[in-house]
Write a structure and sequence with these properties.
four-stranded mixed sheet; single chain; five-stranded parallel sheet; alpha/beta; elongated
């Protein structure tokens, strides 16, 4: 029994050490610190690991697109200088976390990951202001709230795993509760102006309105049962 306990302690130490070895080079930092580190670094290596379509819509200045979901991510990432700091980001942090761990495996020694992805970057006011409205304007959004029923707005994205899990029962609730509540789903990638102006930095984000006033807000996954309790 004593030997078994000692073995478990040693095994735990080895496992923790191995995990630490993989992630010790990855530093996840918030948007303003991320921007400051980039500014302080000569010729910074910035990797946007989103899809080419996402990259084309907006990206951090001087970033290079290396799609995490592509089959040649490792080949393209290996072209960067492993001895210099590398800055990694995606939309909300999921893909960049995996990419950062892979970069550590490839031998990169200083890896900065943007906490919360470009959503947090935008909400921190670090994106260049654009005169072009992408998606709904604030005025058009406010018109959606004109109802004598409660209005539930769901900001989602096609690539967002929690959003995908929630989609089936949100669509079902849209039909079942039509006499009591209006459910509107807005694609975050197609409504960047709203996302920035409303400082929405996580997906999914749900906003429940009554008489045009926010009565409840939730970010992240929520079960069907818990959501119905709020409605």
């Amino acid at each position: 029994m004593k030997f078994h306990s000692i073995f478990l302690i040693i095994l735990s130490f080895v496992v923790l050490s191995c995990n630490g070895q993989t992630s010790k080079d990855v530093k996840t930092i918030e948007a303003k610190a991320f921007a400051e580190r980039i500014k302080e670094t000569p010729n910074p290596q910035i990797l946007d690991v989103r899809t080419p379509e996402e990259f084309a819509s907006d990206h951090i200045d001087n970033a290079k697109n290396v799609n995490w979901l592509s089959n040649d991510f490792v080949t393209n990432a290996a072209k960067f200088d492993k001895s210099k700091p590398i800055f990694v980001y995606c939309k909300s942090g999921g893909r960049s976390q995996k990419a950062a761990e892979k970069l550590s495996e490839l031998g990169f020694t200083t890896i900065y990951q943007l906490d919360g992805g470009i959503l947090k970057w935008d909400s921190a006011g670090l994106s260049k202001p654009s005169s072009k409205i992408i998606g709904l304007s604030t005025q058009e959004y406010n018109k959606l709230l004109n109802s004598d029923k409660k209005v539930l707005i769901d900001f989602y994205a096609e690539w967002c795993a929690p959003c995908k899990k929630m989609k089936p029962y949100l669509l079902q609730m849209e039909k079942e509760l039509a006499d009591k509540i209006v459910i509107i789903r807005l694609d975050a990638d197609k409504n960047k102006t709203l996302m920035t102006e409303m400082k929405i930095s996580e997906l999914p984000t749900l906003l429940l309105y009554e008489n045009k006033e926010v009565k409840w807000k939730h970010s992240g996954f929520i079960s069907e049962e818990d959501l119905k309790k709020q409605l």
